[in-house]
Design brief:
The protein has 281 residues and is α+β, with helices and mostly antiparallel strands. The protein is built from 8 helices and 14 strands. Strand 11 and strand 12 form a beta hairpin. Helix 7 runs antiparallel to helix 8. It starts with 6 loop residues before the first strand and ends with a strand.
Length: 281
Amino acid sequence: MRETKNLEFKESITNTFLKTVSAFANYGDGEINFGVKDDGTVVGVKDPVQTCLNIENKINDSIRPQVDYRLHIDEQTNVITLKIFQGLYPPYFYKEKAYKRNDSASVPVDSLELSRLILEGQNCSYDSLPSHASNLHFSILEKALQKKIGIEKLTPDLLITLGLREKNGKYTNAGALFADENDYRGIDLVKFGDNINVMLDRAQIEKVSVLKLYQDALQKYRQYYQNEVIDGAYRRKNEQIPENAFREAIANAIVHRTWDVNAQIKVAMFDDRIEVVCPKA
């Protein structure tokens, strides 16, 4: 047995375990086993009942806001298992710092991650925050909605309903993402030849509506992976890589990427595969 992202061993009780309590409360359930060496050797703890009280006091006195946890004593081994549950109101601080797990270590989060935790604790998202952009235009979105749901015009009220604009007239970050033009990094798409040293084509699609990002990426896919084949009296479409698979991959990349990171989605096109990498902090 070894330590993992969700499991930590402590041979004895020191305050360092409180960093891990913060990390699990911020980012996901986890366990700390007290009375176990780093290599997994079980040694137990002396007086586990009193040790549990010490653990409780340290958590209750040091972690803010209060975390949800459970303690269990294995009466055969005297190993104490501390189960920490991911909280609903992050960030959870220890000594004015919020922590996360980096493999089997607990490390402080940076300012960007801290901002995200604060938004999560307020039940907000980056997309819903007010944007600094103004005078935005939505002709691409309007055409898409006219085609899909039959609207006549994209009105300010509809923008509010869609969460792209606030009642005070300011646009949200989601609104900026759907605007015809914006300041966001988009997609860096490269078609390679026999190896990564041979670039046959490169397209950087930036500062445009996320709908155009999707459409332009799909157009590049069709350029390189689809062709028509004459089969007797019939003409059929041939796909080297299924279009549905590429559609899902590029759509997921656009939807789930971290837009508060100033980086591009990387799309690498090879003869036998397509690799899509999302920017994450």
